[in-house]
């Protein structure tokens, strides 16, 4: 069974640009979560999507947004990039309903110059 | 954003030694999870705990869900070089009491483990 996949692996942008990151969940999982992990730090929750809807949002500005598609894959968009947005962005997926466990993808390393 | 208190922050141990780390929170969680992360990769789930007091093992790893539901512990026995990495605890609350659906994870600050020969 394929795990969570993310693309691209690495992304280099300049300040003010927009970045789009993609995530495909494990087959059968309907929930997708996005986390930001700045260098040397823990994971900070960004967004949670299920059945195409945003269910919860972390303490991040509105320029961090996303969506979930009918096939449950998801996109994270970061507008007006700032230097401090440089981080590893991790996507996780889980089943919705009942105690569930999140499985992570390998991440997208975003570097803002 | 909120993070759980995880200790120790880092450990240098010799191969064969046992390792203990813990995670504490000011609030209650319904689920505790332990992940290991290698450099440049996503966290990999090691152990999931769903009930207060639960003790679960996965090979040389043993984790416990604290009775108060505000803490959890991870032990690694007879460490080996491939145990090197960052270990994260994560807590999860149950949003819907009827369906038991859970929500986002709140992560600990991580314990960096280095094993010397």
Provide an overview of this structure.
The complex is a heterodimer of chains A (113) and B (117). With 113 residues, chain A is mostly beta strands. Chain A is built from no helices and 11 strands. In chain A, strands 2, 4, 5, 6, 9, 10 and 11 form a 7-stranded mixed beta sheet that branches. Chain A has a 4-stranded antiparallel beta sheet with strand order 1-3-8-7, with no helix packed on it. In chain A, strand 7 and strand 8 form a beta hairpin. Chain A is globular and about 35 Å long. Helices cover 0% and strands 55% of the residues of chain B. In chain B, strand 7 and strand 8 form a beta hairpin. The relative contact order of chain B is 0.33. The mean pLDDT of chain B is 89. Classes of the chains: A mainly beta (113), B mainly beta (117). At the A-B interface, strand 5, strand 9 and strand 10 of A face strand 4, strand 5, strand 9 and strand 10 of B.
Write a compact overview of the structure shown:
The complex is a heterodimer of chains A (113) and B (117). Chain A has 113 residues and is mostly beta strands.
Pairing-aware structural class of the strands and helices of chain B?
Answer: mainly beta
Q: Give the helix tally of chain A.
A: 0
Q: Report the largest inter-chain contact.
A: A-B, 30 and 29 residues
Question: How do the helices and strands follow one another from N- to C-terminus of chain B?
Answer: EEEEEEEEEEE
- Based on CA inertia axes, which overall geometry of chain B fits? globular
Structural class call of chain A reads: mainly beta
- Weakly predicted, low-confidence segments of chain B: none
Shape of chain A: globular
């Amino acid at each position: 069974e394929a795990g969570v996949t993310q693309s691209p692996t690495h992304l280099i942008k300049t300040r003010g640009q927009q970045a789009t990151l993609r995530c495909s969940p494990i087959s059968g999982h309907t929930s997708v979560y996005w986390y930001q992990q700045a260098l040397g730090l823990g994971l900070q929750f960004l967004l949670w999507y299920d059945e195409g809807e945003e269910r919860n949002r972390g303490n991040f500005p509105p320029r961090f947004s996303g969506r979930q598609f009918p096939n449950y894959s998801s996109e994270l968009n970061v507008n007006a990039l700032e230097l401090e947005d440089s981080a590893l962005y991790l996507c996780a997926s889980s089943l919705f309903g009942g105690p569930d466990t999140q499985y992570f993808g390998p991440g997208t390393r975003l570097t803002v110059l | 954003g909120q993070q759980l208190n995880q200790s120790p922050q880092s450990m240098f141990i010799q191969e064969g030694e046992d390792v203990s780390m813990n995670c504490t929170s000011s609030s209650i969680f319904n689920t505790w999870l332990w992940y290991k992360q290698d450099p440049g990769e996503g966290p990999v789930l090691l152990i999931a705990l769903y009930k207060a007091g639960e003790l679960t093992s996965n090979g040389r790893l043993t984790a416990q869900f604290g009775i108060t539901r505000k803490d959890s512990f991870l032990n690694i026995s007879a460490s080996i070089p491939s145990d090197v990495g960052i270990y994260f605890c994560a807590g999860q609350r149950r949003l819907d009491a009827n369906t038991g659906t859970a929500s986002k994870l709140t992560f600990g600050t991580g314990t960096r483990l280095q094993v010397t020969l």
